[in-house]
Amino acid sequence: MKTNILNIAAASAVMMIAAGCASTGGSSWGNEPPPPANPNFAGEMNKFNAQFPNDKATKYEEVSLNYNNAKKLDEVGNCHDITKHPVVIILTLDAAGKVTRTTTDVEGKKAECFRQAYAGAQLPPPPFAPYQKPIRLR
Prior knowledge:
Elements: H1 2-24, H2 41-50, H3 55-71, E1 87-93, E2 99-104, H4 109-118, E3 131-137
Antiparallel strand pairs: 1-2, 1-3
């Protein structure tokens, strides 16, 4: 009887440890270094900031964000789970709302995945062109 209780206790401990490891999700990310910065990003962000203050641009930010969320454009390519670090992407849109260029704040596989996912994507037409549209992606 005592042996059975010890076996059950040992098995339970092993199962709890295994469940704990499985539930942490991305445990190998704990020591993951941040990706290298993209030196071209600051210039693109300056272009975005120069678009404001502008009531039409402010309204477009909400419209385009809702469109992006409804169409789930960020889920193309399953990029979110590549690393734990978020990526900020700036989309350059033409007058029709088509993405003509993408720039990310960092380099690396996740950033490249998002650049590919948004390349040529279609958003609603912006109030003026070219229009810089940043999106923070987890």
